Amino acid sequence: MPIEIQVVADADALAREAALVVTGVVAERPDAVVLAATGNTPIGCYAELARLRATGSLDTSRMRVAQLDEYVGLAADDARSLYGWMDRALLAPLGIGSERVVRMPVEGNDPQAAARAYDAAIEAIGGIDLAILGLGPNGHLGFNEPPASADAPTRVISLAPETLASNARYWGDGTVPERAITAGMSVILSARRVMLLVSGTPKAAILDRMLRSAPDAALPASHLRGHPDTILIADRDARPAGSLEA
Ligand code: PGA
Hints:
alpha/beta, Rossmann fold, three-stranded antiparallel beta sheet, 10 strands, binds 2-phosphoglycolic acid
């Protein structure tokens, strides 16, 4: 199946359309498992979901969430914890308690074993119904830095220079941990539905490359072209009119 592409006017419209996709999945399956990215792009969608919940249009009382990625080596209370970010942006506003979350287990001193435990936990809850993803500046998904094959498992990864530079936007002092655990491409591609969100002019070139590329480890997001049910929602800045539609 080709990727379904929806181009919207701006970041606000992207947030609304993305939230509608999530709402649809949760309406169909109230205990849906949602693999949730942090990063700037999905934050508007999460805020819209909180608004829909507050107005009674979304029931999150059974919804489940899986963490997409996490830095390795941070203290539990470090302000850069991606779990903390996900908690503030998504879990708390939607009233989703930790008992309904598959957390990326980075604490302890055997991150490889933690990665295997994560894959087992995802399998044990029946897999992922919807993966909500942003697009990295180098075409990564989660922290699947290139090269990443379609069958790459959850694993420890050294962040690419482009990712370190891009993640520096998130943290005031600009320091970004250099290692992370990411849900593998195999986990992402096994999601029953994938929603890729892309916003802003800086993403236009990598998005265009992704949409022209055959599935290729050098551009991990291009593996979505082999996924059976992916929707891409991009705003006009990321997907200008006149781009070759793929
Ligand atoms: P962004 O990050 O949503 O903050 O642009 C996306 C990514 O790097 O995966």
